[in-house]
Amino acid sequence: MKDFDLVIRNGTIVTSSDIFSGDIGIKRGEIKELGRNLSERAEDVYDAKGKYIFPGGIDAHTHLDMPFGGTFSSDDFNTGTKAAAIGGTTTIVDFAVQPQGKTLNETIEMWREKADGNACIDYGLHLAITQMNDKTREEIPQVIRDGYSSFKVFMIYEGMMVDDLTFMEVLDIASENNGLISVHAENPFVIDYFTKKLLESGKTAPKYHEISRPAYCEGEATNRAISLAKMTNAPLYVVHCSCEESASEIKKAREEGFPIMGETCPQYLLLSRDNYEEEGFNGAKYVMSPPLRDKKNWNYLWKALNDGVLQTVATDHCPFFMKQKRMGLDDFTKIPNGAPGIELRMALMYSYGVDKGNISIEKFVQLTSTNVAKIFGLYPKKGSIVVGGDADLMIFDPEKKVKISKDILHENVDYTPYEELELKGYPVATFSRGELIAEDGEYIGSENRGEFIKRSGPKII
Ligand code: URP
Ligand code: ZN
Ligand code: ZN
Ligand code: ZN
């Protein structure tokens, strides 16, 4: 009997704080040893010469099979997690959104039915709370104990949004029980006001989506969300910061010593409001909330990532086929909000982050994996390359050049917002708990092998 089921040898191992060359010895899905010349003690060997070995990506913001905007996001837990795996992501945390009239436990049951036996990588679930009542109050501490340790509130979207009172109560109860609250911060009254004016003057095209919700609308809501967190002594995680107006609110609160954290997404670092000008109805590809912003925000967001103002990069993967987007052909408010991105996050962040000199290679690991694991109660089992941790690894060829096209991707949708962008560096293999599940752009793992992960409380970073 050999010491290891598998040794990945000769790679350059990169963690959130170190780079070193060596071998990784894996047994029963866990990393057992980091060292040199481990191959002879292994049943099987994978040669990673010339490649980086990164902790598998963790995407803490996905919407798979989600009922939204009168339709469903087009990737389910099977197709979405396969695309994620091909792109080097080994864990997701998806949002289980409480339908009106349902309890949190009923919501969990609904989402576990979608995910269990379908997902191909490991997954956790955040609970999006849409209503507060005695039952919700009673369930919050219990679901945290069951491993659903993070919550979300939406400040917009009919049927999902909560008022400040409910928001405050979620902050108060969840934080008292070692849960973390995240927030989609935009002001619904501002959006309604501008939308009405735009539609009344016949401005119905996709580009008016962005005009209906200016950056201040996100900044104001972020400020309000942070104020509520301050008053309840709760930590807060602001999802998908798109602009200086929101990120600067997080910066200010952190400088004052409050436990406020934030995320951005590749689309806000690489795409801009100019995309809404694409011909015909193509601007609808980029209709998401918050919307793409002026390019001038890019530098601010890269700096915020570098300075630790924002700690993570997630995708907000929420794909819709163009035929679904066409529900809003005559009215931008009827375009389902969201865009794909689950397969490209790691490659985009390496190419446009590390290769272009915007972030260090260690920062890349922090933003895409280690910090995410810490914040969402997955660390150190996930998010690192450490003895005792899961052997979730992305093998990455820093020299591989790829021109992005929908045709090379596996997301269940008929476009990518990143079409024609050039990449230098691409994932070539993905291991999940020691199993080679993706290689050279194809999913090759066993079907439906993903496991639900119970998460512990947040580490504030
Ligand atoms: O437009 C978006 N972002 N759709 C997904 C739901 C959300 O707001 O995160
Ligand atoms: Zn959102
Ligand atoms: Zn989202
Ligand atoms: Zn393929």
Automatic annotation (TrEMBL):
A Pfam family that this protein carries is: Amidohydro_1
- Recount the PTM note: Carbamylation allows a single lysine to coordinate two divalent metal cations.
Listed A to Z, the keywords are: Hydrolase, Metal-binding
Annotated GO molecular function terms are: dihydropyrimidinase activity; metal ion binding
**Which Gene3D superfamilies is this protein grouped with?**
Metal-dependent hydrolases (3.20.20.140), Urease, subunit C, domain 1 (2.30.40.10)
Q: Where is the Amidohydrolase-related domain?
A: 52-436
Entry GO CC: cytosol
Residue numbers of N6-carboxylysine PTMs: 152
Q: What's the family?
A: Belongs to the metallo-dependent hydrolases superfamily. Hydantoinase/dihydropyrimidinase family.
What is this protein identified as?
Dihydropyrimidinase
Query: Gene encoding this chain?
Result: hydA
